[in-house]
Every structure is written in C-alpha cells, then in structure tokens.
C-alpha cells in the first residue's frame, strides 16, 4: 500500500517517536462522553464516562497502551479516539492507564503503576461511584500493553481479593514473552518497517537497563541465565505453533549463561505471561486475542492461543492475514489506516457480544 511505502521511507524509530510525543490530546468532552484526567492512587488515568442516563450499570474497559514500556500514552490522538469511540459504542466506562515509562522508570515500576491503578478502580465503592457493573469488566491491551494486560489478569486471578473480577481480557497483537527472540515470526519479519527486530530489542531492553550488552545478547538469543532451561518448554514454538506457521524453521535451543550480568526480570512471568504453567492458565477468564501476520510478535500471540485452548480457556482468536503490527496506532489523523478500523471493529464487536 501507499502507506507502507511511505513508512518505509522514514526511519521507523523517528516515525514512532513523532507519533507518540507530538500527539498528546487534552481531555476534551463531547456531546456523548465526559473525558477527565485524574489519578487512581498515584497513577494518572484518563476516564471516559458516557453522558446519557442509563437505567443499569455499565460495563468497563481498562485500556493499557503499547510502546514497549518506553513510548506511548493513553492520550495520543489515536488512543483518545479509540477509547472515546469504545465508550460510546459499548456504552462503557473506559479507563486509560498512564503508567510511567522506562528508561526513567524501569521495570517493575510501569507494571506496578498499572496494578495499583487497576486495583484502585476495582474496589466496590469506586465501581459504584462510576456506575460500573462489577461483573462486566474487561482489561484490554495492545502490543506491550497486551503483555501487561495478560500479566495483570494472571495476577488478579490469583489474588483472593480480586479473583473473578475480570470478566474478559482482550490482547491485541500482544508481546507475551521475552525469553526466546528466535521465533519464526521474529526471523521472518526481522526487517518489517513497523516493528523491526533490532529496534524492538533496543527499546525493549531499556525496560531493564541502558547497558548495551543486554540488547547485544538478546539479538543472538543468548540473554537468558544458566538454570533457565526449564522455562523454554512454555514458549517452545516447535510444540505450540500451528504447522502452517512453522514452515521450514528449525528449533534451536537458546544458549544460556552468556550474559555476565543477570536481570531477575528475565525469568519473571510478569514480563513473560507465557511462562506460567497450565494449572495457572486454566484459571484465566474469557479471552480475545488478535494476531497480525506481518508482525515479529505474531508467534507470541499464536502460542498463547494454543496454550489457552489446550487447557480449555474460552477464547476467540482473530488472525489478520495482511495485518501489520501497531495498526491501531495509525487509526487517527493523518493516517486513517483502514486496517486499524477493521481491527477496532473486530474486537469491539466481540466485546459487544461478550462483555
Ligand atoms: C454521539 O453519539 C451519536 C450516536 O452514537 C453519534 O452519531 C455521534 O457521532 C456521537 N458524537 C461524537 C462527537 O462522537
Ligand atoms: C522444544 O520442542 C521440541 C519438539 O517439540 C523438542 O525436541 C525440544 O526438546 C523442546 N525444547 C525445549 C527446550 O523445551
Ligand atoms: C563477561 O566477562 C568476561 C570476564 O570478565 C569477559 O571476558 C567477557 O567479555 C564478558 N562477556 C560479555 C558478553 O560482556
Ligand atoms: C504451577 O505454578 C504454581 C505457581 O507457581 C505452583 O504453585 C504449582 O505447583 C504449579 N503446578 C504444577 C502442576 O506445576
């Protein structure tokens, strides 16, 4: 498409930062939705509250934006547009969570910000204040926000105070593991203009450190510590990827212990929701996963689909054959990317039926 050709001319990093930095919107209400910036505990959030009177309580969607924990905001014009549109279409309360970002705030601060804001929102008195039906709450995340959504959902499901509070999780082209950087999609779409592998690794590593040894090791898939071999069975694409995506790729085991420094986050399921075992996965709520073909993160989503189906989690999976990573980012001006609207309509119509 013309769009992809244009993107190819720019350096993707420049494009990314242009989009996310210059583009923050103010909280502007419209005829249907009251938009406010506030804070849940210490985490800033943007709230979208439908204006029209409702006889019954409303569903709620908690939105976690993407950007590799380094870029992005729930206030970009694309995300503001999406969240406003969702609030209107679903007659739902939408909460955009503005967690802090690396490299200034490294792991686990962004995650803890999100958890703290979400737990605050899920209190009965707060749900009541916003007219939210406590049985109809969804967590939705895209890209790295999808990783956060998946791990927060796992956390809450294991917490007696929050168990069953989340009715559904929606993961849009999510990243779901950081332990294997040689999945077939990582190899096939290494040079994809939207999320090239090098840039993704460079950005992703800033979540832990600015030390260049980490991204160098990740590029070679040699970043995991000694003693972590048992974790690879949970992300082994050779066992979980449908045949059509394996093609002629050959599974090679990552080499362990090459990185001198160790980062505890590398083995933490909060950063790799795929690392939990089947009995943990079994507890998860209704799930929607969308994957895009042209996406280095494609296989993370596909592996989660297989693993969740294997343990009987109720799940809907949409795969966009010509899909590119991050299409929702290009839904607003000046791009108006058609595919972004298609993706939005797919998951929002699923939410209309299931939330
Ligand atoms: C308000 O809602 C109506 C009905 O859904 C819609 O037609 C209209 O475009 C909405 N207004 C805005 C500013 O989104
Ligand atoms: C990955 O799966 C393949 C085949 O399914 C198997 O031969 C290999 O031992 C597995 N490796 C790990 C580390 O789980
Ligand atoms: C790890 O440390 C050893 C010894 O200090 C050094 O020779 C080697 O280059 C280091 N490796 C990396 C990847 O930094
Ligand atoms: C699965 O993981 C949980 C939490 O880490 C652990 O308590 C449980 O024993 C594990 N179950 C199996 C079957 O390994």
From TrEMBL:
Domain Alpha/beta hydrolase fold-3: 61-210, 244-327
Pfam families: Abhydrolase_3
InterPro entries noted in UniProt: AB_hydrolase_3, AB_hydrolase_fold, Arylacetamide_deacetylase, GDXG_lipolytic_enzyme
Active site: 143, 295, 325
GO terms for MF: carboxylic ester hydrolase activity
Positions of transmembrane segments: none
CC per GO annotation: membrane
Keywords from the named record: Disulfide bond, Hydrolase
UniProt similarity note: Belongs to the 'GDXG' lipolytic enzyme family.
Protein name: Arylacetamide deacetylase-like 2
Gene that produces this protein: LOC103273004
């Amino acid at each position: 498409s013309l769009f992809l050709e244009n993107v190819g001319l720019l350096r993707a990093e420049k494009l990314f930062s242009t989009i996310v930095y210059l583009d923050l919107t103010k909280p502007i209400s419209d005829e249907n939705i009251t938009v406010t910036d506030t804070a849940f505990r210490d985490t800033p959030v943007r709230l979208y509250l439908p204006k029209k009177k409702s006889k019954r309580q409303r569903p709620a969607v908690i939105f976690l934006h993407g950007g590799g924990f380094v870029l992005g905001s729930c206030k970009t014009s694309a995300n503001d547009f999406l969240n406003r549109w969702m609030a209107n279409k679903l007659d739902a309360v939408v909460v955009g969570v503005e967690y802090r970002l690396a490299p200034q705030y490294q792991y686990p601060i962004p995650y803890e910000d999100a958890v703290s804001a979400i737990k605050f929102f899920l209190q009965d008195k707060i749900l009541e204040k916003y007219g939210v039906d406590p049985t109809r709450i969804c967590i939705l995340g895209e890209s790295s926000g999808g990783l956060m959504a998946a791990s927060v959902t796992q956390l809450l499901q294991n917490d007696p105070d929050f168990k069953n509070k989340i009715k559904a999780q929606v993961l849009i082209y999510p990243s779901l593991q950081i332990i294997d950087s040689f999945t077939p999609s990582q190899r096939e779409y290494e040079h994809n203009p939207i999320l090239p592998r090098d840039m993704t690794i460079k950005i992703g590593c800033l979540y832990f450190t600015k030390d260049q040894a980490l991204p160098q090791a990740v590029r070679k898939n040699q970043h995991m510590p000694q003693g972590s071999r048992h974790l690879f069975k949970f992300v082994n694409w050779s066992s979980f990827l449908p045949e059509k995506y394996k093609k002629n790729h050959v599974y090679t085991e990552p080499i362990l212990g090459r990185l001198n420094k160790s980062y505890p986050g590398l083995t933490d399921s909060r950063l790799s929701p795929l690392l939990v075992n089947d009995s943990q996965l079994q507890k998860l709520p209704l799930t929607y996963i969308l994957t895009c073909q042209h996406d280095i993160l494609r296989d993370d989503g596909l592996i989660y689909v297989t693993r969740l189906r294997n343990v009987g989690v109720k799940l809907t999976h949409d795969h966009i054959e010509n899909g590119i990573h991050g299409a929702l980012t290009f839904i607003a001006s000046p791009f108006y990317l058609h595919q972004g609207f298609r993706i939005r309509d797919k998951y929002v119509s699923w939410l209309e039926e299931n939330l």
